[in-house]
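Quick question, first post here. What does this chain look like in 3D?
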Amino acid sequence: MKGTRAAIRYAKAILDLAKDQKTAPVVNDDMKQIVATVAASKELQMLLDSPIVKVAQKTAALKEIFANTNPITEGLVNVLAENKRLNLLAITANEYTNLFDADSGKQKAVVTTAIPLTEALNTQVLAKVKELTGKDAVIENKVNESILGGFILRVGDLQYNASIANKLNNLKRTFSQN
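> Answer (accepted):
Ran it through. Tokens below.
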């Protein structure tokens, strides 16, 4: 993804500053809000990516939208504006939350299922991830009906595929070989 390396550098710098000022969890909440807001608004995404809209207008809009954020978060918006990289705001915010979770001993676990996870299944998946990796995890559920049933669990580089579609493909390969 374009700009990811720069976004990671900005996120690391913001995380270091937030840890020094002991406001990392508060800034993490701001970053989650930024990611959710930008993802939910096509107009905001277009505004941030537009080369036609002036940086001052983008900055004013962002300060209005995210008025009640931590001064460090406001500083990130200002730095990105000065460097004409406001299009990296959502990516930087997402990288910050990833770095914060990793620094806190949490990891991201992506669970792909045919139907949305229930709260009880979510709890079971969290327990299984903790058992497998020894770390807490934040669960992200993706729904993909093509797996038919079961689940695919991805934690970092580890992937466990217990989907019905995978089992059917394995059977198909076994029968094709014979």
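The longest helix spans residues 4-20.
The radius of gyration is 20 Å.
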